[in-house]
Every structure is written in structure tokens, then in C-alpha cells.
Amino acid sequence: MIELEPQLRKFQKELSAGTVSLALLAVLASAGEPLYGYQIAKQLERIGGGVLAGKQSALYPVLRNLEGAGLLDSHVEPSMTGPPRRYYRITDAGRTVLHEWAAAWRATRDSVDSVLGGLEP
After folding, report:
1. Residue 32 backbone zone (phi > 0: left; psi -120 to 50: alpha; other: beta)
2. What is the C-alpha R_g of the chain?
3. Rounded CA gap, 22 and 94, in Å?
4. What is the structure's pLDDT at 117?
5. Which residues are paired to 76 by β-bridges?
6. Distances from the Cα of 55 to the Cαs of 19, 39, 40, 44, 82, in angstroms?
7. CB of 40 within 8 A of CB of 27?
8. Among the four residues 9, 24, 31, 91, which has the most C-beta atoms within 10 Å?
9. Which Pfam families does UniProt cross-reference here (predicted)?
């Protein structure tokens, strides 16, 4: 017999891996100001209803990859309450990519919804 819970966790992990970059760009695009990692994680948790919330440490490699691709800029500022914080902001290229990725996401979502349309909830 197949255990359903591990299968669901695996599916959610795979699905999340493909959408976190899109969600991070969207959070930073709507922020209006640079955010540091903890703020980004809290926004994802709040806006995404906890679905995209994961380990905060898992966001940093994605943020670095997005920055390496020129989609984000960052700078470090000292913090009065702890170590220095790296603040991220979306670039113009990031905004362009965000719109492209959002369109691709909507097309994929609509297609999957069409396929799933006949299933009972």
C-alpha cells in the first residue's frame, strides 16, 4: 500500500521548487522598498497563506541565484539588533522576467485546471 503523506510532501516540494522564484520576484515587486530575508519569508507566509512558506534558509540560495541572473540587486546594512542584513530589491530586468513568468504560470495553471476540471474536490 502506498503511503499518501510522503507522496504529498514530495509533490508539494517539487511544485514549490518551481514557483518560489516567481513568488520571490512578486513579493519584491510589490514591496516598494528593499526587504531582507526574514521580511521576505514573512511576506510569503502572510500573502501565500503558508503554502509557500518553508525554511527561511532555503530562500537565500534562490535569492542569490536571482541576483546572479541580474533579476535582483542587494546591499548590506548594519543592524542594531544583530548581524548586518542583506536587503534585496527587484531590478528592471527582474520586473520584465516577472511578467513573463507570471504569464507562463497563468497559462500552466489554466491548463492544469482544465485537466483537473472533471475531478471531484
Report:
1. left
2. 17
3. 10
4. 87
5. 86
6. 15, 13, 12, 11, 20
7. yes
8. 24
9. PadR
